[in-house]
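User: Sequence in, structure out. Go.
Assistant: Echoing your sequence, followed by the structure tokens.
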Amino acid sequence: MLIAGATLAIAVITGLLERRTPFALLRLTGMPVRRLQAVLLLEAAAPLAAVALLSAVLGTGVAQLLIRILVAGRPGITVPGPDLGLVALLTLASAGALGVVAAALPLVPRITDTDATRFQ
């Protein structure tokens, strides 16, 4: 998840650099830097949350299915449910990935400075 966070941070910065002029124009019209940072964080958080949740559900489901197939027909063996520590681990890892993305957000004021609105 930390690698995912680093990849997302690179994607956020790249997207910001590609949209430097529109974001600088938004700043000139009065949009606060905090709101731009929130947009960029939401841009990174939505796919991260979707992929993390989907992969956790599918991984747990497949693991449960395989375990049940392996112990099918063997009396006295019960299959335990998924460990709730998985939810805590996934939450902690997702928070770490978003922390890496949040570490890139202080670049927003410098990248969207009013100098970026000068046209050639």
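User: And one key feature?
Assistant: Helices lie at 2-18, 20-28, 33-70, 85-104, 108-111.
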